[in-house]
Amino acid sequence: MTYxxxxxxxxxxxxxxxxRSGLRFPAISLGLWQNFGGTRDDESAAEILTYAFDRGVTHxxxxxxxxxxxxxxxxxxxxxxxxxxxxYRDEMIVSTKAGYYMWPGPYGEWGSRKSMMAxxxxxxxxxxxxxxxxxxxxRFDPNTPLExxxxxxxxxxxxxxxLYVGISSYPQAETREAYRILNQMGVAxxxxxxxxxxxxxxxxxxxxxxxxxxxxxGMIAFSPLAQGVLSGxxxxxxxxxxxxxxxxxxxxxxHVEPNVLAxxxxxxxxxxxxxxxxxQLALAWVLRRPEMTSALVGVRTLEQLQENLGALDxxxxxxxxxxxxxxxxxxxxxxLMPRPQGWLR
Length: 345
What we know:
By secondary structure, the chain is α/β, with parallel strands linked by helices. Helix content is 36%, strand content 14%. It is globular and about 50 Å long.
């Protein structure tokens, strides 16, 4: 395909530093989890990805196991990178991760040096890249010394295969320890990627957000719409094309309990009073905290991306609006604190 990026692509995007690093992220980043695997054709994927880039979305987030099937998202992104984005590689942040199941045997998941190093090599091959901008430990491994996992990340930076490294879904204590170990090795923990939304506040409750602010680690929230619940579609009974109708869905029953949907109804009224959709309010809420660098959105359609980007028109929440959201969601909170066994991501 022939693609030329829009000349005004940086005019309307908001960029924020990741903690105390020099790396800046767009306020809204595009995640390729679930929607850009083997069932997505290159043409429709390229339409969404190039539209995002034309509007200042410079960060594309992947992982080794994204698909389905696992690995197919990186392969698809690699093809589009080669066909459309190659002249713009230095204007982009490409991130990937390792930690969840990828191949059979004892080295195909978790956080051993063997697994992490092999995974990065495979990811680079699938995307046709010499390096990624960010490589994450996708989840804390309770059976591998953290020094081993962090040591692998540090060596990736030293080898030039990752410019920055980060962690994902690490609770507060593990976040602090990962930072300490990397810091001793002379490598920064640049960013933390946790789940976070107005219905899922575990990083506030366990102190992870405060720890990142204290240590100068940036944060990027995944699932800021709580798996689409904060779009309001489940309240309308509209399950067509959603995770609710998928067999291997990441949507939990706890996401759609009556108390959660009742909270969503209340939030919808606040969004309407602001002249925003619920999606746009949910993104503005996530970005209200100074510790939060970016909100990571996942979309199935171009129209969804356009709605998400519309949040940039009004990211400011008044104290009264924040208090109203707190009150509206008090009875609809989800317990999504990451735990070593049985994590969903």
